[in-house]
Design goal:
CATH superfamily of the largest domain: NAD(P)-binding Rossmann-like Domain
CATH architecture of the largest domain: 3-Layer(aba) Sandwich
CATH topology of the largest domain: Rossmann fold
Largest sheet: 6 strands, parallel
Shape: globular
Number of strands: 14
Helix content: 40-55%
Number of helices: 18
Strand order of the largest sheet: 3-2-1-4-5-6
Distance between the termini: 53 Å
Bound molecules: nicotinamide-adenine-dinucleotide
Length: about 425
């Protein structure tokens, strides 16, 4: 099938590469000319395991190409996926101006039937507006369908998630659109949930908000554990074995971050309010998440007594492991608070250093975890990269001024840390 992907970001590029790998002809469009020029030279705009090889393989096979022209992509393709950003506006509302702009351009360039699919995360009823926008701008008599096909991939395991998803959701308004999308996903062995467009849009917002709720819930429990001497890892394990609850997303830490959860929770609260429903649970989820970061900073302050003038090594900057994505990473707020308190920060991340440079200022970036530990008064862990789990802790201890680790991701076993002679503070245990 001939497929056009508009927006060659985390979602669009992975989607494009995977569809090409499944044997389709894919044109990836982005209005960031620099990104397109780099992609043409097979340079990836971000780090994602396995993506570079997949892109190279499919470009070489002639199934994947890049352009900054929507016109070119629309002309060649039957199915057009909108994968542009839907960032938050002041007040939490999703900014849909990129979606509108792309829908307008698609419409102006359509000369025969096209299926336009929203893959970006959008509030319920966006499909209706995309349809209206296209109707308004399309040349007379060109038929089209709009569908919703929300994406559930996780950065870090994006390719695996795309090719082996728990489900595929397609929200459609016609049998033709359903048939085309089912055909496109034919090779993927999973349940396809077919719904109306509003339901599909809601499935995405509801799923992300539910996962964020699980995180804030377990973080709240971790605060009770700390006040009672209970152990959050055991409590979470004991809860998670209940098949009605499940073990995933019950890991306490410094709070959720990334491009999706914070903005999707905000956007869901906003659209719910607009529809006349006050989504109280989600407001609390958001509040708990903000407090969790502040509580962590307080932990560091309590452990150091005086933060001013102290050197703090920070291990992990990306919002989660196996990605270089720094968008809304908890590390940004935590480092900024520590800096405001007068700490000197030495930071290290296995993959996110380049991106971190542009969002965190006034920090010394180190080349290794050991460099960050050297002469530090405390070491703070903010992302649970595997590299940190296998650190030579005897060496780390020797390098540090003070053997103090405040672990925001519960990477180490407290008993082992005590034996090694560290003062070790973690979350909820
Ligand atoms: N990142 C994730 O893990 C993830 C997972 C599921 C869903 N989503 C959703 O998918 C959408 C995209 O997210 P992302 O992380 O890929 O964003 P991103 O910022 O990495 O990519 C968006 C791309 O769209 C391009 N773009 C913007 N306006 C354009 C235009 N007019 N024409 C052509 N290209 C244009 C940008 O240059 C950028 O490259 C968002 O709605 C997000 O919520 C993201």
């Amino acid at each position: 099938m001939n497929v056009c992907i508009i927006g060659a970001g985390y979602v669009g590029l992975v989607t494009g590469a995977c569809f090409a790998d499944l044997g389709n002809n894919v044109t990836c469009v982005d209005n960031d000319k620099k990104k397109i020029d780099a992609l043409k030279k097979l340079k990836m705009p971000f780090f994602e395991e396995g993506l570079e090889d997949m892109v190279k393989r499919n470009v070489k096979a002639g199934r994947l190409s890049f352009t900054d022209s929507i016109k070119e992509g629309v002309k060649k393709s039957l199915v057009i996926f909108i994968c542009v950003g839907t960032p938050p506006k002041q007040g939490g509302e999703a900014d849909l101006s990129y979606v509108e702009k792309v829908a307008t351009e698609i419409a102006r360039n359509m000369s025969s039937y096209r299926l336009i699919v929203e893959k970006s995360t959008v509030p319920v009823e966006t499909g209706k507006w995309v349809r209206e926008t296209i109707k308004l701008n399309v040349r007379k008599k060109v038929k089209f369908d709009v569908a919703s096909n929300p994406e559930f991939l996780r950065e870090g395991t994006a390719i695996e998630d795309f090719l082996n998803p728990d489900r595929i959701v397609i929200g459609v308004g016609s049998k033709k659109a359903e048939k085309i999308l089912k055909e496109l996903y034919r090779e993927i062995d999973t349940e396809i949930v077919v719904t109306d467009i509003n339901s599909a849009e809601l499935i995405k917002h509801a799923s992300n908000s539910f996962l964020a709720t699980k995180i804030s819930f377990i973080n709240s429990i971790s605060n009770i554990c700390e006040r009672t001497g209970a152990d959050i890892t055991k409590v979470a394990h004991g809860m998670g074995l209940d098949s009605r609850i499940g073990e995933s997303f019950l890991k306490s830490g410094v709070g959720y971050g990334g491009f999706c959860f914070p903005k999707d929770v905000d956007a869901f609260v906003h659209i719910s309010g607009k529809l006349g429903y006050d989504f109280g649970i989600l407001k609390a989820v958001r509040k708990v998440n903000e407090e969790q970061k502040a509580l962590f900073v307080r932990k560091v302050e309590d452990a150091l007594w005086i933060v001013k003038g102290k050197t703090i090594g920070v291990l992990g900057l990306s919002f989660k492991p196996n990605t270089d994505d720094m968008r809304s990473a908890p590390s940004i707020d935590i480092i900024n608070s520590l800096k405001e308190n007068g700490a000197r920060i030495k930071a290290y991340d296995p993959h996110a250093m380049k991106k971190a440079h542009s969002v965190i200022k006034g920090v010394t970036f180190c080349r290794t975890a050991y460099d960050a530990a050297r002469n530090s008064d405390a070491l703070v862990i903010l992302t649970e990269w595997h590299e940190f789990e296998v650190l030579d802790l005897v060496r780390v201890k020797k390098l540090m001024k003070n053997a103090l680790i405040i672990d925001g991701r519960n990477v180490f076993d407290p008993v082992r840390m005590k034996k090694l002679g560290f003062k070790y503070i973690s979350i909820g245990r």
